[in-house]
Design brief:
557 residues; Porin; 14-stranded antiparallel barrel; 7 helices; disordered N terminus
């Protein structure tokens, strides 16, 4: 049997076992980015007052009653996520050349059917419609990659620093994973088991990329190539059961029972490779008294996270035609009650020049909780120019003031009290402006274009020339001692989408639509691990975009 006496360290993602239940997760799972049918996508989602299209039902439930027929549609889609990521050795504006990451996935942003029933009672109720629709409301696909050279810090050094004070026998015991005070240290336990960090006293540790001196100090002795890859996948889709009513072709009322379903995953892979391994000596001590000196070569860490959940909400909508050509719409969506289950694992590996390799993973963690997503108000208007086409404008206000988490498994727990207080303090309202235009080139073909602008509901507090963000909202922040540079961690810019498409609507039952949408996200900033011993850690700037393409095929009957 052998044990490692001297050692070294690596880069790891900042990821706690209970990695969700944060402000960013609240925005991710509670946000709405309408995709739907190709027509709805091409018009920028400005469908609240237009109606008729099954993609519009998620925006305004009254829209299904506008159609004078029953219909069935299916919309296969393709998404291409792209990111340009730049690495800086310390948090600054001195970023290196951008590096590209891409991810392509197939999806089904919309499928649905509606059945229209005429009323023969002679009342103002002309018809009513029943519909069942599935619409995608968030696309989580992304891939970012960045690399750089660091001779100052290492994640494994940060991991060793985080482990300081924990008895090595307890760190290596199975009971460590069951201790609630160490939920955020599962990566440390995995790292000690794999050999990413090593003990040199009962409660002091050194990283696998560090050198330990005779005085008990440790440091990164040479250059490390740090590589960071972040891949996310999944979507949020709303299952809609709709009922809508047509009163004299002037007023349309509708209601949705919405059942949103979340599937989300992320894989954060980080590695370090020694540029000159001879600067990273490792001494193996054997039980028989022998020793062998080798050198650190490379190490890898991965954090995998999965979240799945389902929720329920109600949405009420109306469309009114005050005079020929003009349509006005309004809809209200109640807060969504989600039940979410998350799963996570930490894994890692390390290799030395003598051929020794070690790998392993942590226990698989699971956690279940509830989340209340924001309520939303939709206001819309559209004007039709006879057979020439239309223009439409939608505005959605999402109210995040009352969002919050709660535990499902612990009665009377105040686990989320601080998180909820912090989230509500830093959350306001999100705004989404959407505009669209449609021109009928011929009786059968239409050309469409749209634009969408979304703002983050996150609030920033300005103190002097600094902006304080939620990113590091902790006890220090709560006491007013933390200030972050502007634009750190979270967005304070706009998300914009540009879309275009074609429609084919001949006489008869068959019709088809095609759309392409480009979404540009504001730059985000990411630090792959905590600072330690008063030293800064690398910072990665990410400029990302998403292209969605969709083809809707439909039949009227």
């Amino acid at each position: 049997m052998k044990r490692i006496f001297l050692s070294s360290a690596l880069i790891i993602a900042l990821a706690a076992p209970l990695g969700a239940q944060s402000l960013s997760d609240a925005y991710r799972f509670g946000g709405i980015d309408y995709l739907g049918t190709a027509r709805s996508m091409a018009l920028g989602g400005a469908m609240g007052a237009v109606g008729c299209d099954l993609g519009s039902i998620g925006i305004n439930p009254a829209g299904s009653a506008v159609a004078g027929y029953s219909q069935f549609v299916v919309t296969p889609g393709l998404s291409l996520a792209s990111a340009q990521s730049s690495y800086a050795l310390t948090p600054s504006n001195d970023f290196g050349a951008p590096q590209a990451g891409k991810r392509t996935s197939f999806a089904l942003p919309n499928i649905g059917a509606s059945a229209r029933y005429d009323s023969y009672s002679g009342s103002a109720l002309k018809s009513f419609t029943l519909a069942f629709v599935v619409n995608t409301t968030s696309d989580y696909n992304s891939h970012s990659y960045a690399s750089g050279v660091n001779d100052r810090t290492s994640k494994f050094a940060e991991m060793a620093s985080a482990a300081g004070g924990i008895n090595k026998d307890y760190l290596a015991s199975s009971g460590f994973y069951n201790d609630s005070q160490y939920y955020n240290y599962w990566d440390v336990a995995m790292g000690y088991d794999v050999g990413l960090i090593h003990s040199y006293t009962d409660s002091d540790y050194v990283g696998c990329t560090e050198v330990l001196t005779d005085l008990g100090t440790h440091y990164v002795p040479g250059e490390l190539i740090q590589k960071s890859s972040n891949v996310t996948a999944g979507a949020k889709s709303d299952i809609l059961m709709n009922m809508a009513f047509n009163f004299s072709d002037k007023l349309y009322l509708g209601i949705n029972l919405g059942l949103p379903v979340i599937n989300y995953s992320s894989a954060e892979t980080l590695s370090e490779v020694a540029v000159q391994p001879e600067l990273f000596p490792i001494v193996f001590n054997y039980d028989n008294g022998g020793q062998q000196t080798t050198y650190f070569s490379n190490a890898t860490y991965q954090y995998n996270y999965w979240a799945s959940g389902a929720g329920v909400y109600a949405k009420f909508g109306a469309i009114w035609l005050p005079f020929s050509g003009l349509r006005l719409g309004f809809a209200y969506q109640t807060p969504t009650a989600f039940n979410i289950e998350e799963t996570w694992t930490h894994s890692g590996s390390v290799a030395y020049l003598n051929g020794s390799k070690y790998s392993g993973s942590s226990r698989t963690g699971t956690y279940e909780y509830s989340y209340t997503a924001p309520q939303a108000f939709d206001f819309s208007a559209a004007f039709t120019f006879g057979r020439l086409g239309l223009v439409s404008v939608d505005y959605t206000l999402s109210d995040y003031h009352h969002i919050g988490y709660s535990e499902n498994t612990v009665n009377g727990s105040d686990y989320f009290d601080f998180t909820n207080t912090a989230m509500r303090a830093f959350s306001g309202v999100g705004h989404n402006l959407r505009v669209g235009a449609e021109i009928n080139l011929t009786p059968d073909f239409a050309l469409r274009a749209g634009y969408s602008l979304r703002t983050s509901p996150e609030k920033y507090y300005i103190e002097g020339d600094k902006t304080i963000a939620f990113g590091d909202y902790n006890e220090d922040y709560y006491l007013g001692r933390l200030e972050l540079p502007k634009n750190s961690y979270y967005y304070d810019e706009y998300t914009q989408s540009f879309s275009a498409g074609l429609g084919y609507n001949p006489a008869g039952s068959f019709f088809a639509d095609l759309a392409v949408r480009l979404t540009q996200y504001p730059d985000s900033y990411y630090q792959p691990y905590y600072g330690y011993a008063g030293m800064d850690t690398p910072q990665i700037r990410i400029a990302s975009s998403l292209i969605n393409a969709a083809l809707t095929i439909g039949w009227r009957f």
